[in-house]
Amino acid sequence: MLQFGYNTGVINAPEVNIENFMKDVYKDRYGEDISEEFIQQLYSVAVSIFAIGGMLGGFSGGWMANRFGRKGGLLLNNVLGISGACLMGFTKMSHSYEMLFLGRFIIGVNCGLNTSLVPMYISEIAPLNLRGGLGTVNQLAVTVGLLLSQVLGIEQILGTNDGWPVLLGLAICPAILQLLLLPICPESPRYLLITKQWEEEARKALRRLRASNQVEEDIEEMRAEERAQQSESSISTIELICSPTLRAPLIIGIVMQLSQQFSGINAVFYYSTSLFMSSGLTEESAKFATIGIGAIMVVMTLVSIPLMDRTGRRTLHLYGLGGMFIFSIFITISFLIKEMIDWMSYLSVVSTLAFVVFFAVGPGSIPWMITAELFSQGPRPSAMAIAVLVNWMANFVVGIGFPSLKTALENYTFLPFSVFLAIFWIFTYKKVPETKNKTFEEILALFRHGNGSESDPQTEHNSISSDSVQLQQSAVSPVSGKRDPADGPHK
Description:
76% of the residues lie in helices and 0% in strands. The chain has 2 domains: 1-185, Up-down Bundle (Growth Hormone, Chain: A); 235-450, MFS general substrate transporter like domains (Growth Hormone, Chain: A, Up-down Bundle), CATH 1.20.1250. Residues 451-491 have low confidence and may be disordered. By secondary structure, it is mainly alpha-helical. It contains 23 helices and no strands. Keywords: Glycoprotein, Membrane, Transmembrane, Transmembrane helix, Transport. Pfam families: Sugar_tr. It is a multi-pass membrane protein. It is found in: Membrane.
């Protein structure tokens, strides 16, 4: 996921250098200067074509996970990572901005596959009581990648007319590192046991992952999940969309992904440097403020790792969306009165940083994690493929549409995001269940009873209890992992 973070943020700092390169290429080819409007369009293509590749990669993730395995799919994906990075690295040498577009597209496919395969792999290898924390480590890698791209993108390092192709080409490093390290990792035991029916291989993988020979509890939980899902051992995307039982978790998964992208965070990631400059900062100060965003993302993601399994996904997501809503209003206010009061440009920086803090607390990691948690083994790959496709489509819309939105709304640019954040907060409060410390079977039981809301804990307790009775009667008994005593009694 470091690849995803790095390639999302890397395009931000060298915006001016890339635009200068495009101007030179255009003048050499056609013997005339390019218009300012057209150069902005070309640059927004370089930014957003990454998301088109991401859509394609994300949607192929489910097929790849079933065909080659979670680990096998990730290994193969590095071929795309290396070729995309090489194309971007040699863009200036080849004197062709089309090569930059192609490289960004291929690296987008690579990152799209990562966003589908990685959360699936992590949720399947993690012990139940650590699933949330490990899912957040996934987001930590994204934020470290973002920060790395921002630091390397400053003028003193690689943010120069000669350095930016190297900056983009450095995406080859994590791909090579993964090719060397991933073969040491075990394949997902769930994939080996449920999809492939290789029980002995699954036991071996579990013994390595748990560093213990006591793996019967995990094996039994997987068998319970397999028995419960026998009727839908492999669900196609169309079957998933048409299934009435799985419709509620699918809608929740999709809306959670939209809440991440339409929160306005990618407008900050892609265009924060120009956003800070328009609020009154110098170019150098704007670049350092952008590095501040990356640093805060890393710190806050670290803070949210222990919170994830203690506080719960739903609660953190509500805090995150609520905080982002408040500070998106502050960003709008600071834009409106920056001409009247000099220090207002600093309010816009502080508000943007606080906006990022609340994103890291909830919407940063939870949508990826909860989609993998809401579905059992059969429909999980298809569900992840749909959710990731929606995420990348929304990412593309924000990437390509934000410059036009900024031109049209000027100081009111963040207002549409405020409206979206309010809608997503209400939806999460009303419809999203808590998945903390629940087995996949217990989560599915919530939806069987149409209990998509967590507003009444007693109702949820009754729903789980009645489902447990049902499951015992049908000889399917989910076995849960160890729970933190602070989490209260086992439901």
